[in-house]
Design goal:
It is a single chain. With 112 residues, the protein is of the alpha+beta class. It is built from two helices and five strands. Strands 3-4-5 form a three-stranded antiparallel sheet. It has a two-stranded antiparallel ribbon with strand order 1-2.
Length: 112
């Protein structure tokens, strides 16, 4: 069962949006992302975004840094993973890097 991208209806009407792993939509339309820190019950809040892509890239960066997957197939947007992410970062540093990248994608999507 692949949970990476599934077509699912969000909101009113038949407007279909892609559902990304680790991303959910609030009732008022904002997209949010968070992830669990492995080995603990702690969650890292990755931010609130205007579009699902910003939240998805934030989740991808945090997932990659925290879990260091053997392949990029489990990521939402593997082609957008920045080259400077690494696994030797603290959870707070990961949170900041993920949030900054998500906000950059979010801002770029709004301008376009």
């Amino acid at each position: 069962m692949s949970s990476v991208k599934v077509e699912e209806s969000f909101g009113i009407g038949s407007n279909l949006q892609k559902k990304y792993r680790g991303v959910r939509r609030r009732r008022w339309g904002k997209w949010v992302s968070e992830i669990r820190v492995p080995g603990t019950q702690e969650r890292l809040w990755l931010g609130s975004y205007s579009n699902p892509e910003g939240a998805a890239i934030a989740h991808d960066i945090a997932f990659y840094c925290l879990r260091r997957p053997s392949s990029l197939n489990g990521l939402n947007l593997p082609s957008m993973l920045p080259p400077n992410v690494n696994a030797n970062m603290s959870p707070k540093s990961i949170q900041k890097a993920a949030s900054d990248a998500g906000m950059a994608v979010d801002a770029q999507m709004i301008v376009s």
